[in-house]
Amino acid sequence: MTDWSDPDAIDCSDGATFDALLDRADTREKGHYFEFFAEGDELTHDPGLRLSQHGSEQWMGQTLNHDPAYWRSDTARERGFEDVPVHPDYLLACVMGITVEDLSEKGGYFLGRTDVEFHRSARPGTELAVTSRVVDTRTSSSRPAYGIVTWATEGRDRETGETLVSYQRTNMIPRREPAATDGGGEATGRPDDPDGGPDLPETLLAPEGGRFEDFRDALDDAEAESAAVAYRHERGRTMDDQLVAGLPLATLNTARQHHNRDEMADSPSGDIVAYGDVTRSIALAHARSDEATYRERRFADERFHSFVTLGDTIYGFTRVLDCDGDAGPEAVGAVTFEHVAFNQDNTPVYSGRRTALVQRYQ
Ligand SMILES: CC(C)(COP(=O)(O)OP(=O)(O)OC[C@H]1O[C@@H](n2cnc3c(N)ncnc32)[C@H](O)[C@@H]1OP(=O)(O)O)[C@@H](O)C(=O)NCCC(=O)NCCSC(=O)C[C@](C)(O)C(=O)O
What we know:
Elements: H1 15-24, E1 42-45, H2 53-63, H3 73-78, H4 88-97, H5 100-103, E2 110-118, E3 128-139, E4 146-157, E5 163-174, E6 204-205, H6 212-224, E7 228-232, E8 237-238, H7 241-250, H8 261-264, H9 276-288, E9 293-304, E10 313-324, E11 332-342, E12 348-359
Parallel strand pairs: 6-7
Antiparallel strand pairs: 1-3, 2-5, 2-9, 3-4, 4-5, 7-10, 8-10, 9-12, 10-11, 11-12
The chain binds Citramalyl-CoA (CQM).
Citramalyl-CoA (CQM) binds near residues 184 and 273.
Protein name: Acyl dehydratase
Pfam family, one: MC_hydratase
InterPro entries: HotDog_dom_sf, MC_hydratase, MC_hydratase_acr, MCH/BMMD
């Protein structure tokens, strides 16, 4: 009779026997299926994460976000920070990263996010406390293997209890008992146009520079010429392993989509995909490199339209929607942009509206 306490009871040299053994073993599952979530449920996310200067600098370097206020104390102070804070994209990615184990580790893709508000900046060393509330659940009509869940999430400073950032995000989440298989067709790669809104005019203007007045003057010119203020950014960034797998893991984002090629081979994307926050941060970096950003304010209507996989290159396109000269301190004005990230085939992969305070000419 086999002695099951014998360390040699598992014969690793015999592939077929081991295969049969795996077949009989239950898998201790991670994450939750769609059915787990009920509207109104509150979840406290336990993974500890301390925002670090290294993490922030690594994120900024890899995503091309080079705003000196997040690297250097002299510029940080000039811009009204007490000290060098972590970059807001890193903060947001970390707050979301540590929710993944509870909310979306089971799989299914990040579809969109809205009402992203930065309440205060965070210093390196801040320990996070993150909670989420289930806002909405519904089954997907086009992809019966999935449900669609929306959560409201708040990231706080664990020591002071102050809210740092809050948002609502929506994911596809696999159903425990899918109505059918995947059910959906290939992603179209075309952004939805929920309003069926008008196309952009023929004439697209670019602002002369990156200061508040440049955006305001461009909008005034565009109105006079029935044009739009919309332009491309020159830089591109090819998705390598560090971006696709490394950065999400550094934020404790355990979604298999980013680091398990084996599991993802049978998924709708067929391969690992970039964390949405990495893709968006790269496109925003391209846009910020063409503007004198003072402070990030808020994001709305963020959508992830198509997969980004290893080897794809991310470019940015920006449209200026609005300028508000009365917002924020005297030396700045608020500009609302629509940013689109697109790949080497000009396929949009992300879009979202962003309001930032932008410096004026002194
Ligand atoms: C997923 C794909 C294949 C679906 O492609 P499709 O052609 O089926 O597309 P769809 O029409 O855009 O959407 C399917 C359903 O979702 C709904 N929907 C869509 N957007 C929203 C939204 N914002 N709010 C509410 N609902 C939304 C939409 O209304 C529809 O509902 P229906 O099935 O009942 O008709 C396609 O959209 C795609 O390729 N998207 C890109 C996904 C992606 O790469 N996301 C980022 C990476 S995953 C990630 O970062 C993971 C993370 C952060 O780690 C982690 O959550 O754990």
